[in-house]
Structures are given as structure tokens and as C-alpha cells.
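Exercise: predict the fold of this chain.
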Amino acid sequence: ASWAPRRSTRSSAICSTRISARVGVRELGIAEDTYPKLKVQVYYELSKTYLNEEEYEKSKEMFEKLIFICKAENMNEELVKLCLARSNDIIEIPGGVNEALKLMEDTLKLAKEIKYKEIEDVYLTIGVTYWYDNKMVEGIKFKLEALRICEEKKLNKKTLDILTDIGLDYLLTGDYSEG
């Protein structure tokens, strides 16, 4: 594919990497009644930090806490965005592709329910995840749906990016006429 999700190496503005991998939200002194969006962001940063330290179960636990808060506070749009980011974060860890596909299946369902404005990003992320799993045909199907939505919305930049991505996928599958 012309672009691929990459694990972020930027440090968190909310808490330092060294400290955050060893403590949870309560240990950081964040009260239970703290603004939910802040708590969600802290849990997301903790989940990324645990990934970077290869503590995958702790990372998953932090992300599950984030999901719980988002659902409890009806932060569905934020949850979709964070699930897209999480998929990109976990795709290269052991077992990450399968976990990302399951996460994106649930995310697509939620995105449809809430009529997520940028649902093309969900379809594209699923397509890229299939690409990582060497399932080009399935990936292309989802990318074509993302393309259809972008064309319908007249999102020219996204349309061109997805067209290039799909073209490269066709070339990699040996379908030079489609590529």
C-alpha cells in the first residue's frame, strides 16, 4: 500500500513515558470525577506506552478502560477515532492483525450506528489491516468502499490517496490491468 500505519514514537504531553508505564490513572492523581475526555486520553497514552514496552496485556487493559468510559459517557465519535488509532498502534505486534481486525469490525458497526461523518476512514483502515494480513482481495474490497464514499463526498485528496493505494494493491496481486 502507498501508506501504512506506523506506531507512534511521540512522547505523551499528559504523562511521561517512563512513569506512565508503571502507574494507572488513580496513581497519577487523577480523581474519579475528572473530565472523562482527559481520562480517556490518559488511558490511550498509557495503552500506547505499554505497547512500546511490550506489555501487551496491560496495554489492552488500559484500552478496555478507555472503551468503558467512552461508552458510559456517550463519547462514540471519540471512541471511533481512538479505535482507528489503536488499530494502527497494534497492527505490528504479535497477534495484532487479528486483534485489529476484530476491533475494526466492532468499530465499523458503531460508526454505522452513529452515522460517523468520516466512515471512509474506517473502511480504509480495515482495508489496510487486511493488507497487513496478506489478504489483498478483502483489503481491496474495503478500500473500494472507502473510495466510493470519498467520491460521493467529493473528497478529492482522499480519493486520490485511496486510488493510489488500491492501484498498488492490484499491482502487488499481479493484476496489472486494474493497477
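Check your answer against the key: The helical segments are 17-20, 36-52, 56-72, 76-90, 96-113, 119-132, 136-153, 156-173.
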